[in-house]
Amino acid sequence: MTRLANATLGSLPPAVARPAYDRAAVTTGIVHLGIGAFHRAHQAVVIDDRLAAGETTWGIVGASLRAPDTRDALKSQDGLYALAVRSAAPTRLRVIGAVSKVLVAPEDPERLLARLADPAVRIVSLTVTEKGYCHDPATGGLAEDHPDIRHDLGDVLPRSAPGFLVAALDRRRRAGHPPFTVLSCDNLPANGATVKRVLARFAALRDAELGRWVAGELACPSTMVDRIVPATTEADRAEVDAALGVTDAWPVVAEPFWQWVVEDHFPTGRPDLAASGVEMVGDVAPFELMKLRLLNGAHSTLAYLGFLAGYETVAEAIADPALAAVVTRLMDEATPTLRPLPGFDIESYKRDLKIRFANPALRHRTWQIAMDGSQKLPQRLISPARDRLAEGRGIGVMALGIAGWMRYVTAVDEKGAAIDLRDPLGDRLKAIAAAAGPVAERLAPALLAMPDIFGADMAADPRFAGPVTRALASLFAVGARETAARAARGELSLEA
Ligand code: CS2
User: For residues 301 and 400, is the Cβ–Cβ distance under 8 A?
Assistant: First the structure.
């Protein structure tokens, strides 16, 4: 079959939306680091709208910091790809034209650096996942002993996101150009402040003057990003190709819902994001807490318990009444830890989340969400649990989500089969689990003693350690499904 490309756009079926603008006239204003499915189904769609509205200086050059696969897929497609929006309604297809090319950093770091240093680039956005920030998830500070950070502090071409950003900022400062604005689009708490802290520290370690410039000049607005975008499967590719009538080597699949809340702080300019439905606000924190603790907290809980209970997808997991009840209770218990959003109907947000999780047309694997738990747990389950304790409440079913993660990192499932554990701390976690054995009273304290995940305060707090250990004991004894059922019936003691 022919390939999706500029030259074949005209042959697409009329129902497929496509760039209604002259792609050749677009110039690059944004470099995006971490060009995976999420970026292509979220920020790039908004930018595609802005390009169509005539804001032609905001085209995107994407970069992968690791694998060449996205570049390999999109190269002979002129950067085009299809977005398939899936729900119970018929799938909607739209070809996105916002990405002109994809660079592969490890192949040619100098090419990416030169792009980042180009003053025409005014925004560098990031979806590098939690671990890409090379920070300590419990404190939010730069992980100075991270191997990539140690490498990038040498007199070398960088490898890490902070390494590339700071090296490019250094070139811009020396050339007398203003910095770009760094726009983190990852699910980190205070993602703007976090990336700023990491970059300022990295820059200061490189050179004190640069450190001061980054601390003083660099704008890193915070954002809350939301859209459920499961990894694309072969079946998705086949379905999209059949509907397009041409081959797209890497389409993306997403739910209809999307939300992007952005702190409006762009000293060197930005596209008119609000005109495309982005919420521009002064303070993202209340939105971000709500999303991380309700959506992502529930997602991780469903991922660990659901995977252990034998459910492959989130939709299957939430169809289990016991897991659905755990999710409802988790959201209710997280709610008092949120900041008020005047006029916002939080109860309907929670109901909608459960409907989104149940989307029958998305195959969002529990295994996918279970990945990188060490980087996700702090903001999704541990901080809200800590906030509850500070207010004199018990941690409730957050204990069950955390215990589900502990059971999962033993890397052996309930039938005795190996779990493909993906986590930057995976080797450490597996070693701890192997030394402790499947005994909650040994495994829970050993994992709680990891300050980079649990902070320094939780291991010794019986109001936290007690319920987590009991929930883990139940998971070992009767499995995830029965433990969730007992929790749903109020039969699992989650009090201190
Ligand atoms: C998920 C998120 O993989 C995960 O950890 O919880 O990717 C989630 O789907 C998005 O944050 C939704 O906006």
Answer: yes
From residue 16, give the alpha-carbon distance in Å to each of 7, 73, 90, 379: 15, 20, 12, 39
Q: Which pLDDT score, from 0 to 100, does residue 263 have?
A: 98
Rounded to the nearest integer, the mean pLDDT of the chain is 97
CB atoms within 10 A of CB 178: 14
Q: In this structure, which residue's CA is closest to atom 6 in ligand 1?
A: 296
Give a yes or no: residue 1 inside a domain. Answer: no
Question: Rounded to the nearest whole angstrom, what is the distance from the C-alpha of residue 199 to the centroid of ligand 1?
Answer: 25
Give me the pLDDT at residue 188, please: 94
Number of domains in the chain: 2
Judgement on whether residues 202 and 306 belong to the same structural domain of the protein: no
CA 27 to centroid of ligand 1, rounded, Å: 31
Could you tell me the residue range of the domain that residue 437 belongs to?
285-489
**329, 298 Cβ separation under 8 angstroms:** no
Cα(428) to centroid(ligand 1), Å: 24
Say yes or no: CB of residue 226 within 6 Å of ligand 1: yes
Task: Tell whether 452 and 354 lie within a shared domain.
Answer: yes
- Bridge partners of 142, per DSSP, are 135
Whether residues 219 and 358 share a domain: the answer is no
Question: CA 188 from chain center: how many Å?
Answer: 8
pLDDT at res. 1:
79
Q: Give every strand in the sheet of 279-281, ordered side by side.
A: 223-226, 259-263, 279-281
Instruction: Tell me, in angstroms, the distance from the centre of ligand 1 to residue 296's CA.
Output: 6
Residue 468: which CATH number? 1.10.1040.10
pTM (2 d.p.)? 0.97
Which of 261, 295, 357, 367 for mutating ligand 1's site (highest number of atoms within 8 Å of CB)? 295
pLDDT in tens, 13-51: 999 999 999 999 999 999 999 999 999 999 999 999 999
Mean of pLDDT values over 171-196: 97
- Whether residue 496 is predicted with pLDDT greater than 80 in this model: the reply is no
User: Could you read off the pLDDT of 329-359 as tens digits, one per residue?
Assistant: 999 999 999 999 999 999 999 999 999 999 9
Of 225, 260, 281, the one marking the end of a domain is 281
Cβ–Cβ < 8 Å for 39, 116 = no
Which of 260, 281, 302 delimits the end of a domain? 281
- pLDDT band for 494, please (50, 70, 90 cuts): confident
Nearest CA to ligand 1 atom 1: 369
